[in-house]
Amino acid sequence: MPGYDAPIRELRFLLEDVFGYDQHTPALPGFEEATLDVVMAVLDGAATFVQDVLLPINLPGDAEGCRLADGTMHTPKGYGQAYALYREGGWPALASAPEWGGQGLPPSLALMVREFVASGSMSFGMYPGLSQGAYRAILAHGSEELKRIYLPKLVDGSWTGTMCLTEPDSGSDLSRLRTRAEPEDDGSYRLTGTKIFISSGDHDLTDNIVHLVLARLPDAPAGTRGLSLFVVPKRIAEDLPGASAGTQNNVNTGSIEHKMGIRAQATAVLNFDGARGWLVGKPHGGLRAMFTMMNSSRVGVAVQSVGVAEISYQNALAYAKERRQGVAPNAPGAASQPGTDGRNPIIDHPDVRRSLLTMKALVEGMRAFYLDAALLLDVRAARAGSPEGEDAESRLALLTPVLKSFLSDCALKVTDLGIQLHGGHGYVHENGMEQFYRDARIVPLYEGTNGIQALDLVLRKIGLDDGRVFESWLASVEDTAERAACVASLASMAAAQRRASARLRDATAQLRAWRDGNELDVAGAATDYLNLFGLVALGELWLRMAQAAHAGRAQHPQLAPFYNGKLGAAEFFFQRLLPASETHFEAAMSGAQALMTLRAEEF
Amino acid sequence: MPGYDAPIRELRFLLEDVFGYDQHTPALPGFEEATLDVVMAVLDGAATFVQDVLLPINLPGDAEGCRLADGTMHTPKGYGQAYALYREGGWPALASAPEWGGQGLPPSLALMVREFVASGSMSFGMYPGLSQGAYRAILAHGSEELKRIYLPKLVDGSWTGTMCLTEPDSGSDLSRLRTRAEPEDDGSYRLTGTKIFISSGDHDLTDNIVHLVLARLPDAPAGTRGLSLFVVPKRIAEDLPGASAGTQNNVNTGSIEHKMGIRAQATAVLNFDGARGWLVGKPHGGLRAMFTMMNSSRVGVAVQSVGVAEISYQNALAYAKERRQGVAPNAPGAASQPGTDGRNPIIDHPDVRRSLLTMKALVEGMRAFYLDAALLLDVRAARAGSPEGEDAESRLALLTPVLKSFLSDCALKVTDLGIQLHGGHGYVHENGMEQFYRDARIVPLYEGTNGIQALDLVLRKIGLDDGRVFESWLASVEDTAERAACVASLASMAAAQRRASARLRDATAQLRAWRDGNELDVAGAATDYLNLFGLVALGELWLRMAQAAHAGRAQHPQLAPFYNGKLGAAEFFFQRLLPASETHFEAAMSGAQALMTLRAEEF
Predict the structure, then answer these.
(1) How confident is the model at residue A380 (pLDDT cuts 50, 70, 90)?
(2) Which residues are registered as beta bridge partners of A259?
(3) B352 contacts in A (CB within 8 Å)?
(4) Can you give the residue ranges of the Acyl-CoA oxidase/dehydrogenase middle domain (chains A, B) (predicted)?
(5) Which residues in chain B have Cβ-Cβ distances shorter than 8 Å to A171?
(6) SS3 content of chain B, % helix, strand, coil (to 5)
(7) Which of A121-125, A451-455, B44-48, B174-178 has the lowest average pLDDT?
(8) pLDDT, tens digit, 9 for 90 and up, residues A490-539
(9) Could you give the ipTM of this predicted complex?
């Protein structure tokens, strides 16, 4: 069975050495008590929960899967108990508003906890994870009555939430959603339609589930502007107007999706057969309300990506140190001599190191990237409405598609290398490596496919506030490179980063020039542009980590091994991973002509 | 359920337009009757078998999997009947020697049939596929008696074969294999040890299984030079000396491997508990005999890679033409107008086309690559012992690690894109796309991991005959580019190819310069070098295909759509895929320093 040691040390390094956390979040109104010491204590508790409770049920839960029998959805053995312990630990309430029973801790802390949970069991993390979206949507757009009924239950975890968007004919394109909502006399609505791929759509962890459902009112205009958002509980709360006590709503589980991975996650087809619902926000204002859920979910996907990549890396590293095969060429940096049987641990083989360093450079870069964004979430939460809060909001809006897509693609790369590094042992269930890949395979697909994210980036996000949001972010990236260039041992890394960020600047200018009249070129460039953006973003964070490690090593020579690891991974990133930015630049700039010449029947 | 239409038209194009098949194989002694017409007729038969018999059992067989119960290994429903039909059709005997009951058709034809079979069910294809290795090993190294007993049964498919190499502690590194073979008075041996990951290791398709087992004689020297090869039947044939009639041998199935994919393939742990075996070849000559099996298996892996990638591509393409989402920018090459509901089929979206063209350019390039090698197999078979045969043998030896690794990596890319293109529908079992990926995930792992192949390429293969084998291959690659450069519309493709092949030439020179004293740099460059090699190899074949399509279109204007497809894919390959060769070149040439600085505990 795979092992897991929560990356507490990594997070301390990022918070303390790289991001200067104590000068940041505890300086924000409302988060004064969330000092680094408090954060580390909470993370210690989360680590214990994940290691003791989640890790043991992850591999067996994958084998067992969820099961729909006699109309009841059964989660695998141990998931019910784990969820009860999760609630007992107060984990669902961590970053929620004290007004509704929450602990009011910073969003960044909640995301770090989510990373650990995703390492322990991605499937498990999605049960409370989806509740976050429902909580936010009702908090932001719900009536006082809806808040009073639902928020305390979502915050203490006694109910979980879902997002019911996708229908068989409408996935990436929500304009054709067909689910209908008919008004009742008492102010409620009757919803009719079928929703597919509903994560946590039905399960036995809680006695109620709060579905947030996109549907059309009778007078709705066509397209996405005609969507409204409704809260549709699995069981109708007894004190809702006009409903009998806690009765079963007409939400029926049509089937369970048979998925490649996250098999302990009950993903369902839900049939709304005149189910009772209540409007959240304004009529036809569903899309805006939905994006309140969606954007938080997309950052959540980035965090999941890190969690699943981390556990894959940890187990690949442990295996590479332990497994002995072949005799390695004499390596200056190799820690180990051939053992008594004359063979080296495979970590001594250069090609194995190439894989391990790729994993390390990606996982640690990914974590820095989401944490950087998480600190913006703290600002947004604490400074809502102020210019500072709006700046944080805009930068988050810009980075969200990159966080979602680039990190989810990285998660596939890392977990794929984790399989490959284990040889045939990576292909069998018992070692867990193939499960990590299968679980990770969902992240580039859900909450908007990565292709859709790339279009969001090139069509909307880089043009936010007439390009000023992008410009301000890129200026900070260039500034980091400028500062790193002053440290002699980091100069070549900084030079590589400068070349890549200049490419990103040029590509962005070209995309903006193409916007009127060359829409095909813009769309054809989207994915390569996003990858270029992601590499530059990771480069910026690796430069900051390298600078911090360089300073840290001078200050704490006894911690040299840790800091050396950071510097070695940084060097590898700039020498071996960042250069792909050049290929992505060329591809993005080559235009759509080679994509569009063939007619469909010529394929 | 996924569809499949065997790529008969593709093969005809390659054989007729690109490789001039009729001037090649039927001109070889022994293959005079294997004309293009005969080949196409056989392929038609194979297509029918695969479409009618294999395709329907592939998806259900994955869901059901193999099952070990009461000591018997059960294959999924329909596999027994399919195997019986496969035998009835005479498919196992296609390319085997008439002397042993075979049809004596060219190896190239058998490989094309294997491609179709791998599309229909990769799991199924491995049952007869492994028999090929056993057949070759006994044919090349077995005594007359062993040949007489085993070859007819392997050729008519009444028995299947296995390769028993891997042990729990020895995978990539066979030097520490522990299975022992003790001589008996009657000339047979008693084998004791455990073998893992044995494909087709136990099953209910035939009443006997012929295990080819690597083991050590009592006086064996240490390391791989102390390995001998034995044939160890599941049931001892009645006419073997000193054995009672058809008795069960002491080969016991310890367990079934729970694999990520190829779940209808019975992969077993086998315990040899004093099992009776007979020596194949010379004592301590096992490694050489094993490579007779292994090399043919590695080309087989390349062919499997194409098969699984092809069916993924076909289904992605069909989905892209049918699924309507969103409104595409107005595209000159788009075949379709938005439908009645105002949405375009997703094939009209540039980013979807980028994925489809990647799949098309890879799959069709992969097929050309294996077929090019397959025609060398024809020469080797027909001209064994002659200089021409030896040239073919050497070139095959050079290309084998590239075929195995590069094509298996391509299979992962293609099947991964097949999932992504389907959005969430790609993640559920019913659509088959995720099965293709899971099945494909084995190909970079088995028959020597891709990392091991890369080392074989840089440490041995490029140095074959003091580099002359490589030089002769590269000269033919350069020659192709020279000829293509003369066709105006192909000139820019040829120029791109020349740049890439010049990089390969430079990289090869550097690796040879590093060979003495810079072994770490050589090993650290291996995988990137192999990828560079693979891209150049595919580029050569795409240039040949583009030339043939260019000529074909002029000659047969009514077939323009087909030839346009080839030219469009070629253009895409040179513009969007080949440029990665630059990144691989830089990485390979950057040396191992960045890989080796960290000590193991600094990771």
Answers:
(1) very high
(2) B428
(3) 451
(4) 163-273
(5) 325, 423-425
(6) 60, 10, 25
(7) B174-178
(8) 999 999 999 999 999 999 999 999 998 999 999 999 999 999 999 999 99
(9) 0.97
**A173 with B326: Cβ contact below 8 A:** yes
Q: Is B373 within the bounds of a domain?
A: no
Write out the two tokens for A390. Answer: 């709006």
Domain end, chosen from A87, A120, A145, is at A145
Q: How many percent of chain A have pLDDT more than 70?
A: 97
pLDDT of B75-107, one tens digit each? Answer: 999 999 999 999 999 999 999 999 999 999 999
Looking at the fold, whether A572 and A494 belong to one and the same domain comes out as yes
H-type alpha helices, B441-490: 450-459, 468-485
Chain B residue whose CA is closest to A324: B169
Question: Which is nearest to B237 in space by CA: B162, B163, B181, B158?
Answer: B158
Query: Averaged over A212-229, what is the pLDDT?
Result: 95
CATH of the domain at A62: 1.10.540.10
Cβ neighbours of B572 in A, within 8 Å: 594-595
Confidence at A242, pLDDT banded by 50, 70, 90: low
B447 is catalytic: yes
Instruction: Examine the pLDDT at A245 and tell me if it is beyond 70.
Output: no
Same domain, A460 and A585: yes
In a domain, B38, yes or no: no
- Number of structural domains (chain B) is 1
Min Cα distance A178 → chain B (Å) is 13
**Nearest by CB: B356 against A170, A260, A603:** A603
Closest to A412 (Cα-Cα) out of B358, B419, B577: B419
Residue-wise pLDDT for B545-574, tens only, equals 999 999 999 999 999 999 999 999 999 999
Alpha-carbon distance of A353 to B481, in angstroms, equals: 36
* pLDDT at residue A185, as a whole number: 96
Three-state SS string over A201-236 comes to CCCCCCCCEEEEEEEECCCCCCCHHHCEEEEEECEC
CB contact under 8 A, B332 and A596: yes
The answer to whether the Cβ–Cβ distance between B353 and A595 falls below 8 Å is: yes
Rounded to the nearest integer, the mean pLDDT of chain A is 95
CA distance A311 to chain B (A): 14
Total count of residues recorded for chain B = 603
Cβ pair A285, A291 in contact under 8 A: no
Domain membership flag for residue B197: no
pLDDT band at B452, cuts 50/70/90?
very high
Give the active site residue among B434, B447, B478, B540: B447
Give the domain extent around A510.
449-594
Verify whether the Cβ–Cβ distance A561 to B602 is below 8 Å: yes
Q: Are residues A133 and A170 in the same domain?
A: no
Contact flag B350-A595 (C-beta cutoff 8 Å): yes
Same domain, A454 and A570: yes
Weakest mean pLDDT among A319-323, A338-342, A583-587, B14-18: A338-342
Chain B residue closest in CA terms to A420: B445
**A57 and A78 Cβ atoms separated by less than 8 Å:** yes
Residues A221 and A251 in one domain: yes
The three-class DSSP label of residue B198 is: strand
Query: A194 and A165, same structural domain?
Result: yes
A12 and A135 co-located in one domain: yes
For B343-363, write each residue's pLDDT tens digit: 899 999 999 999 999 999 999
Handedness of CA A219, A223, A225, A229 (dihedral sign): positive
Domain boundary among A87, A115, A145: A145
Residue A73 forms beta bridges with which residues?
A68
Q: Counting every residue, how long is chain A?
A: 603
Which of B356, B420, B523 lies closest to A445 in CB terms?
Answer: B420
Query: Same domain, yes or no, for A132 and A211?
Result: no
Separation of CA A288 from chain center? 20
Active site residues of A: 447
In this structure, is the dihedral angle defined by the CA atoms of residues B102, B104, B108 and B113, taken in order, positive or negative?
Answer: negative
* Rg of chain A on CA atoms, in Å: 24
Instruction: Please count the residue pairs, one from chain A and one from chain B, whose beta carbons lie less than 8 angstroms apart.
Output: 285
